[in-house]
């Protein structure tokens, strides 16, 4: 993946984290906390956290629900590879600009669909690690 695509995405600031965990030791929470501390707006997406939120932020069940109240540029995916296609379809429908699939998350069909609709796509890379390299 060209570094220029990663750099373009990392310049965006509104990140919906799909599959975020309330457990601070989980990768999704570690990455989101790091990004938040570096000026990114984190929009938590996890139906299990609707009543409690994440780190004081309102959590949403779906990207569509979150997009009613938030601008979403990047959809950062912490879900199994086979679960990504509907997330990408939803990202397209809400007008997201990029989909970032974290380490171990690879779905070529979802990536092709995202590209077809003009979204930038990263697969199998950690957003935190890539940010740290800059």
Secondary-structure topology with pairs:
Layout: H1 3-11, E1 14-18, H2 27-37, E2 41-45, H3 63-67, E3 74-77, H4 84-94, E4 98-101, H5 108-116, E5 120-122, H6 127-133
Parallel strand pairs: 1-2, 1-3, 3-4, 4-5
Description:
With 134 residues, this protein is α/β, with parallel strands linked by helices. It has a single domain, classed as Rossmann fold. It is built from six helices and five strands, in the order αβαβαβαβαβα. The protein has a five-stranded parallel β-sheet with strand order 2-1-3-4-5, sandwiched between helices. Strand 1 (14-18), helix 2 and strand 2 (41-45) form a beta-alpha-beta unit. Helix 4 runs parallel beside helix 5 (108-116). The longest helix has 11 residues, at 27-37.
Main beta-sheet strand count, sense and barrel state: 5 strands, parallel
Query: Span between N and C termini?
Result: 15 Å
Overall tally of structural domains: 1
Average pLDDT taken over every residue: 97
CATH architectural grouping: 3-Layer(aba) Sandwich
- Strand adjacency order, main sheet: 2-1-3-4-5
Quickly give the structural class: alpha/beta
Report the radius of gyration as a whole number of Å.
13 Å
In the predicted model, the low-confidence regions spanning at least 5 consecutive residues are none
CATH homologous superfamily?
A: NAD(P)-binding Rossmann-like Domain
Number of helices: 6
Which fold name corresponds to the CATH topology? Rossmann fold
Bin the helical content: 25-40%
